[in-house]
């Protein structure tokens, strides 16, 4: 709960005690004849809180009024267990009193911190705690040593578990004939608030689910806690750090300790789950961003490792698919860019390894072993002629 600092320039005074789950306020209006207001029996248990507020219009001079919280076990006066009473008295030479009364030992306990006796700006009553209430710049009440009987505080703590009902009472103790009206100084409202379930936090009388990746034990916790180590939990489902888990990332994603699930970039891949690193694509394969696997390069293309796309083979080379590098065309073959295979040079033409085109041989030469070599062909013919003459010479 936030505590406001009072200023006479704003004339606003808020006092808060917490009790049932609703964000709406109910205004307290005094009966004109009795100068009192008392609620019916309101459902209430010790794990709840009570909130009420006083909006002040005029300076509290020469005032005397009580705000009382009476606790019961059921809808019957006979089940009365005790009460917490705030008596604010601003008359000259008078002092305010904050008292706790427990019915078992008929004991009164009084606040030991006199700074708590001023009309509060804000306050918080919370049963089941050692301090019971908090007011005036986070000052906490303490009744342990302020009881008129040594068993007073212990008796009260044993009674708290039996509380099932509360009655809120406001009484103006001044004589109305004096012209004094409490309503001229304050508008007084109250509301009852249930503790929040786990996975929610308390905010202005309401329970709000924690965002995804945050958790809360519930109760009256006013903030949610971030899950540790990059873990997460669905919205409103985390009650402790033990509920946080490593969220299963989608295929094509990996887990980052601070960012959660992030997409793999092109040229890498991931099967998802709890994987923390994107794996590189091997040569001859590629991938776009957020890929679960790499794809083989199609024929006529190639790629190195970590490639986001495949590149067409250069002229004079080829690929049948899935290649890290394109192969060069052999001699007497050629290819254009992006070829799946190399073509044989036409008759009368030749090429070297890795050629994009074939060259035409001279008209006086013919192809021999892939090159224009008419000399080698002519020498061969002379050898045949000599062999024929030798044969003719030895024939009888």
Explain this structure to me?
By secondary structure, the chain is mainly beta. Helices cover 8% and strands 30% of the residues. It has helices spanning 152-160, 374-394, and strands at residues 26-28, 36-38, 42-43, 49-56, 64-72, 80-89, 97-102, 107-110, 123-126, 133-135, 139-140, 165-172, 186-193, 200-203, 206-209, 214-215, 225-226, 253-256, 260-263, 268-269, 279-280, 285-286, 295-296, 301-302, 311-312, 317-318, 327-328, 333-334, 343-344, 349-350, 359-360, 367-368, 371-372. The strands form twelve sheets. Strands 2, 3, 5, 6, 7, 8 and 12 form a seven-stranded antiparallel beta sheet that branches. The longest helix has 21 residues, at 374-394. The protein is rod-shaped. The N and C termini lie far apart (135 Å).
Q: Strand tally, please?
A: 33
Biggest sheet statistics: 7 strands, antiparallel
What structural category arises from helix and sheet content?
Answer: mainly beta
Uncertain parts: 1-22, 374-380
User: If you compute it from the alpha carbons, what radius of gyration comes out, rounded to the nearest whole angstrom?
Assistant: 47 Å
Strand content: 25-35%
Instruction: Please state the overall shape, judged from the principal axes of the Cα atoms.
Output: rod-shaped
**Mean of residue pLDDT values:** 82
The N- and C-terminal alpha carbons lie at a distance of 135 Å
Continuous helix count: 2
Helical content stands at: under 10%
């Amino acid at each position: 709960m936030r505590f406001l600092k009072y200023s006479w320039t704003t004339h606003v005074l808020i006092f808060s005690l917490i009790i049932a789950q609703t964000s709406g306020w109910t205004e307290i209006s005094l009966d004109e004849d009795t100068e009192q207001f008392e609620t019916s029996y309101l459902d209430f248990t010790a794990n709840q809180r009570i909130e009420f507020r006083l909006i002040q219009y005029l300076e509290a001079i020469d005032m005397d009024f009580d705000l009382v919280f009476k606790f019961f076990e059921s809808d019957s006066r006979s089940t009365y267990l005790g009460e917490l009473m705030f008596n604010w008295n601003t008359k000259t030479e008078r002092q305010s009193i904050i008292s706790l009364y427990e019915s078992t030992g008929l004991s009164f306990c009084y606040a030991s911190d006199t700074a708590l006796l001023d009309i509060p700006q804000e306050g918080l009553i919370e049963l089941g705690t050692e301090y019971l209430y908090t007011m005036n710049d986070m000052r906490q009440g303490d009744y342990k040593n302020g009881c008129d009987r040594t068993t007073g505080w212990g008796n009260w703590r044993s009674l708290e578990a039996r509380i099932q009902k509360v009655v809120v009472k406001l009484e103006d103790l001044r004589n109305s004939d004096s012209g004094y009206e409490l309503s001229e100084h304050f508008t007084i409202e109250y509301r009852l608030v249930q503790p929040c379930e786990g996975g929610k936090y308390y905010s202005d009388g309401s329970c709000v689910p924690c965002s995804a990746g945050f958790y809360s034990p519930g109760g009256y916790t006013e903030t949610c806690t971030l899950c540790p180590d990059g873990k997460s939990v669905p919205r409103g489902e985390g009650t402790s750090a033990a509920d946080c888990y490593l969220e299963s990332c989608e295929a094509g994603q990996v887990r980052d300790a601070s960012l959660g699930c992030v997409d793999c970039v092109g040229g890498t891949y991931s099967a998802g789950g709890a994987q923390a690193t994107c794996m590189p694509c091997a040569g001859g394969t590629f991938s776009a961003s957020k890929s679960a696997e790499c794809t083989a390069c199609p024929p006529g293309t190639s790629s190195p490792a970590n490639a986001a796309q495949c590149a067409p083979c250069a002229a004079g080379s080829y690929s049948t698919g899935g290649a890290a590098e394109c192969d060069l065309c052999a001699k007497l073959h050629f290819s254009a860019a992006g070829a799946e295979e190399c073509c044989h040079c036409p008759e009368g033409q030749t090429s070297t390894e890795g050629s994009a085109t074939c060259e035409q041989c001279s008209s006086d030469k013919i192809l021999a072993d892939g090159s224009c070599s008419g000399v080698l062909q002519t020498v061969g013919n002379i050898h045949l002629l000599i062999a024929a003459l030798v044969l003719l010479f030895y024939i009888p």
